[in-house]
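Appendix C: a fully annotated inverse folding record. The material below is reproduced so that readers can follow the format used throughout the book. The structure is listed first as tokens, followed by the designed sequence.
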């Protein structure tokens, strides 16, 4: 779970992005990937009350299905604000579907792995190797910050 301070930071950044676009619109169409949906949705009500602007929201996958955000944008579905993982957004910019230079980083995440002192380093060089390593492990701990 993201700690409270980090969550507030993420919400403020997301609000700034949406607010900047909203300055000249009564109605905004926003597409957010599932990973960022919760903090974004927490902002919708306060944003609408504070600005009088209405947000039309679609929270769905950034993946490959027909209803995934990149495919909806490629089909020409109207959208004012897109919240996606960087790789998916970069692809849409490259294809000309999103305005280059309009990208604002809302969050970053990292993944790390540690082993007990003196233990051999596990093979995590590929998805398959990581899967084998985790399946062979006697225990594993996940910490989300």
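Designed amino acids, in order:
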């Amino acid at each position: 779970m993201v700690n409270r301070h980090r969550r507030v930071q993420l919400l403020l950044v997301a609000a700034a992005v949406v607010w900047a676009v909203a300055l000249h619109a009564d109605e905004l169409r926003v597409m957010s990937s599932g990973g960022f949906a919760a903090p974004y949705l927490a902002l919708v009500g306060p944003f609408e009350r504070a600005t009088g602007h209405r947000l039309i929201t679609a929270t769905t996958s950034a993946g490959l299905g027909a209803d995934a955000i990149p495919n909806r944008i490629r089909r020409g579905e109207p959208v004012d604000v897109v919240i996606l993982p960087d790789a998916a957004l970069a692809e849409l910019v490259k294809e000309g579907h999103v305005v280059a230079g309009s990208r604002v980083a809302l969050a970053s995440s990292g993944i790390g792995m540690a082993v007990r002192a003196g233990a051999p380093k596990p093979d995590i060089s590929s998805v398959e190797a990581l899967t084998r390593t985790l399946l062979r492990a006697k225990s594993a701990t996940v910490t989300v910050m």
